[in-house]
Specification:
Acyl-CoA thioesterase; about 150 residues; hydrolase; six-stranded antiparallel β-sheet; alpha+beta; Thiol Ester Dehydrase, Chain A; PaaD; EC 3.1.2.-; 6 strands
Length: about 150
């Protein structure tokens, strides 16, 4: 573990105490201003009664990428950026054992409000990744609570 308390080679400060992201097994692939790419393997305990990805698991992955893309990867001492609202569209079923990747990008920022698009991809053996879902987040920057 580094002296910052972050125990992964590539991490984001908001994940330091994010136990849900740890349980999901999220791996940070890339972080930059207004961008985050993360992934996780779709495990059996993440499936619904139909044997496909529970929508909440896909949403949680997208929401984590959203949070990482709208908060500075260098950290902030005075503000946090949170979700003001989101929409998600599920396009295909998530298949157990596949890797899901969320790619988040800021589309627009105006004052304390922002719009972010997150595409959730699913690995396909022997083929290109396919789009599993599309997520749009609306953010709001607020003062950090003491």
């Amino acid at each position: 573990m580094s002296d910052t308390g972050i125990d992964a080679p590539l991490m984001h400060p908001i994940l330091r105490n994010d136990y849900a992201a740890k349980w999901l097994g999220i791996e940070v692939l890339k972080v930059a201003d207004g961008h985050a790419t993360i992934s996780m393997e779709l495990r059996q305990e993440m499936l619904n009664g139909f044997g496909i990805a529970h929508g909440g698991m896909i949403f949680a992955l997208a929401d984590t990428a959203f949070a990482m893309s709208c908060n500075p990867h260098t950290g902030s001492t005075d503000t946090i950026t949170v979700a003001a609202g989101v929409d998600i569209n599920f396009l295909k079923p998530g298949i157990p054992g596949r890797t899901l990747t969320a790619v988040a990008n800021r589309r627009q920022q105006s004052g304390r409000s922002g719009i972010y698009d997150i595409q959730i991809l699913q690995s396909v053996p022997g083929a290109e990744d396919e789009v599993l879902a599309e997520f749009r987040g609306r953010s709001r920057t607020i003062p950090k609570r003491p």
